């Protein structure tokens, strides 16, 4: 283990910050294209942080977890940095909380794991069965009106979670209180959007020099306004994105760019924009096209009913998301998908989505690494993660996620970087350039006959670390193997 950690530390010395090149690929400072495979690490409830010591199947993200990720070929996490954790009092930043986030970022760096900092919210606040915004930032009047359901509250005014679980969390977005609070945020009522911008400004200031922080995701799954006030905002494709989100994102963008003009800003469409109406402009204008990424999620909503129907939906959704990415002329990143169990139907869904991601050369983070006591999920906290309660892997799920890919490619353009789950075949083709290295993760040990029986022009495949290989050679590289 000590030798393994030493190797990781040596690798991390040569790692470098990530930018977007002219083709909107993620690229390091040596000119190599980077592909990211990883997980969400989102602890939504207080203290808004995973445990950082030891291993726990539900709550930890520690050195042991970093070792697990790195050993299995994963190189990125989407880490929750909480607005309610960072600003528990109006206008006052909790530096101790942000220092703990920074500690996790630097711990990940030791294992060459990159980080997207994500301000996660679902249902806005715990008083609405959700999370994301502090109590001082909300106004509560009649939750869960107009829903007629039994809802008990504790001494702090928080709904009892057992009552919240009476229905899928997403349906609470149609309540009056949640919609009204989102409207207040977007209109900057009582300066709420400015406080949110100040929060992001401080996060960016603390992380702008951390090489493994890819960038900042402004908000997870924003709501399309107030359903009780305007059904048009909810139903009309793209309407809420233009009316609410672009002005809001532009405000937060300006706060971040005060202190960090280089790192990438990630932004999402409203959570009901499943058909990909998206945006007709980026948030920072032409100057920042190469420093922005459209963050998108792919869920069909009926994963437990039919994987076949789901995958037809996923195919359409992915096409439409990619069309929006191309129209905006910015990067794209699949920041959420999955939340499935450990069965063959779930594996079929994951295989389809990830094969599709390969075809578009897209990076991804699965939802999520562990359950983290998640009370707002369409799955359950016990089945959506990677581990069972005894700490063992959910093996079918792991076998789908742990797939061959070239994660560092010395080229300006990737012709093919594709694994086909059904046939277990991997294809990699590109034209090399001087000054960088190409590295591949291969889950199983392979021998030369698995590679060179097909084609590998002017190249060699060298084992540099367990399950990690380097392609050595120049010119047109075409590499094939079958697991």
From TrEMBL:
Look up keyword Signal and say if it applies: yes
One Gene Ontology term of the biological-process aspect is: polysaccharide catabolic process
Annotated Glycoside hydrolase family domain residues: 58-371
Top-level taxonomic group:
Eukaryota
Q: Where is the signal peptide?
A: 1-15
Q: Which GO-annotated molecular functions does the record name?
A: hydrolase activity, hydrolyzing O-glycosyl compounds
Q: Which UniProt keywords apply?
A: Hydrolase, Signal
Q: What is this protein called?
A: Glycoside hydrolase family 5 domain-containing protein
